[in-house]
Amino acid sequence: MKKELFPTQEIGSLMKPAWLVKGLRGAEVPEGDLADLAKWTKQLKLTREAKRIEELLRAAPGPRRDLELRDLGSLHQVRYLESAGLDYVFDGEVHRIEMYEHPVRNSKGFTFYGHVRSFDNKYYLKAAATDEVGFLRPYHLEEYEYIKGIAKRTVKVPITGAYTLADWSFNEYYLKKAGRGGKRLSPKDRLSEARRELTLDIAEKIVRPNIKALLKDGAPVVQIDEPAATTKPDEAELFAESFNESTKGLNATFPVHICFSDYALLYPQALEMKRCSQWQWEFANKEASGDGYRFLDLLNEYGDRRQVGLGVVDIHVDKVESAPLVRDRILKAAEILEDPARMLVNPDCGLRTRSPEVAYAKLENMVKGAQMAREVLT
Amino acid sequence: MTRELEAYLSGALPRSEALVEATRSLDRKRITPMECEEVRSEDVRSAIATQRGAGLTLLTDGQLNWQDLFRPLVESSEGLEAGALTRWFDNNTFYRKPTVVGDLALSDGLPHDYFRTRALEGAPWKAILPGPYTLARAAEEESGGPPRGERIEGLAGVLKRAARWCVERGAKQVQFSEPWLVYEKPSEEDLEAAARAYAAVAKGLRAETVLFTFFGNLKRVFPAVLDFPVDAIGFDLTATNIRDLKDHAFDKGAVLGTLDGRNSLVESPAEIVELARHAQDDLDPDWLALSPTCELELCPRSVAERKVAALGAALALGRESL
């Protein structure tokens, strides 16, 4: 890839195609979904694969059929991102259940008890660390192997960070342990000690070996996702420590994605995250109210010279940002950062909640906007 | 302390796996609202039976259709709407921001749907409502709006009607849930506005009143909160150390949040009673009650049921030994 200003990247999950979701569930795939399959595979030049997908959708579910169907879904999403013109791609996380359950189910020490409500009638499965947590298998390796074989652009593999995995889990084993050893702790202090132990154990025993396996297999970029990073306002130190523990001894640097947060809470502790090469924060959804890029001032204030993966399209609204708007956002940020070479361009977060049509239009304009910004500055 | 130890819930119970499935199916239009309601009614019966079986001294209906702490009020008040999804403090759970869109009024009381008073008939029960300060903070917009004090006052009027509605239908206790009061330290001005709101909401209410704090350290409003016109103060012992409260006369009841509503490890009755003993010795409140730290809804139902059983066992043990 030619080294130029404002490389573009995806940031997380995409909406899974309806034919894939229904096909994997063994449900009948209605005409409308098959028409979508035909439309997109034509646009993505995957008509040969479309025939195979249709065959598989007619076949009875089973491990081999499901795996092939999922792989073809992955190919579809990789080509989708490439066709939109991105420089860094993945497959929209087609292979994963989602960002929490997948790593936890594929690690040691966790037990699922049932559903917890997220909001309204939406629920998620939440696990408890009921034993010492540990590495079970490199849970992102198989998908990476597949994607690296098909991708025509640089592959960036997202992995959920230790702090988020710990924050989203119940903690039994470490809480029991914190009560031992003759120390008389109040419930508050005991909880705090147990939380730290769990987070750092996940970092060392689960996240680090998984990153290591990906790097060993040649993954050019591993992005650490930490949506929970600022959830507990007084834990910036633990967050930074868990990142350092997750990446200790690894000969690489890592972009870190955090979204919908007050990033000021991360400072100054985040300055200690030496192997973090790039912040991928959301900005566009705040920019609608005119001050989306104020968080960039933080970097200047603290002398933080890392790269910035600039969120330029809002993932929560269907309105597609125009290419000139994307250009203006990039140029505005470049002015604040005083160094356009530090910038990459991406959506605020994964586009999972937008339809394939809307997500594609947003990505296309993002790529065009980046090109327009390049033309202004070169 | 002459009054016997008590124990009850301090927030919503989680929905059963059957109700989780039913509400999902309802959203996907695979079942009718009536079919979902049948599952919910069964779940209400089961939630009440679980509390009764554990021997809790006041029961709730489990709040099994509350989409968040504010929704019943929002849906039954003029001038309020459910707005943007917002993180519920430092949890991976979200509520819809109560948004003030006009003059506030609670015209027709609260929908029976939200307080299953018929299912609770014959049992002593408690009502749980958002506290005026928390409701006002939750309703704030980044872009401004009226001063906080004014907003607290306006919403207190709605809450007063809601609390009376519950008491008229037999609630023995009204709990005002106030996480915001302790999550961040309120300014002197805010604290005074909150005290005035309680004077409006709780005074003259013919039921016991509890100001229940959670997700933060009670120390942030202590001892000022002791002057609020309520019968008891509740606090979350995963966020508050009892030793930080001991230098002031606790001349109210104390509701001790002793079972962590945010963790699945089930506390032993002995350790719960040990905390109660500690509170009794260090604080010497007028009376004591045991409860979870917050809504058990942040755990799956199977865990919550084990916690309710532990709460009941701690009550029995505490009554023997305290």
Explain how this protein is built:
The complex is a heterodimer of chains A (378) and B (322). Chain A is α/β, with parallel strands linked by helices and 378 residues long. Chain A has one domain (84-377): Alpha-Beta Barrel (TIM Barrel), CATH 3.20.20.210. Chain A has helices at 18-25, 31-43, 47-58, 63-84, 101-105, 141-150, 162-167, 173-178, 187-216, 236-247, 284-287, 296-301, 323-337, 356-377; strands at 88-89, 107-119, 122-135, 154-160, 170-171, 221-225, 254-257, 276-281, 307-313, 343-347. In chain A, strands 1-4-6-7-8-9-10 form a seven-stranded parallel β-sheet. The longest helix of chain A is centred in the middle third of the chain and has 30 residues, at 187-216. Chain A is globular. Chain B is built from nine helices and nine strands. In chain B, β8, α8 (269-283) and β9 (287-292) form a beta-alpha-beta unit. With 322 residues, chain B is of the alpha/beta class. Chain B has a single domain, classed as Alpha-Beta Barrel (TIM Barrel), CATH 3.20.20. The radius of gyration of chain B is 19 Å and the shape is globular. Chain B has helices at 17-27, 33-54, 71-76, 132-138, 148-168, 179-183, 188-201, 269-283, 301-321; strands at residues 6-7, 78-87, 94-105, 125-130, 171-177, 208-212, 232-236, 253-259, 287-292. In chain B, the strands form two sheets. A seven-stranded parallel β-sheet of chain B has the order 1-9-8-7-6-5-4. In chain B, strands 2-3 form a two-stranded antiparallel ribbon. The model of chain B has no long low-confidence stretch (mean pLDDT 93). Classes of the chains: A alpha/beta (378), B alpha/beta (322). At the A-B interface, β2, β3, β5 and α9 of A face α1, β3 and α9 of B.
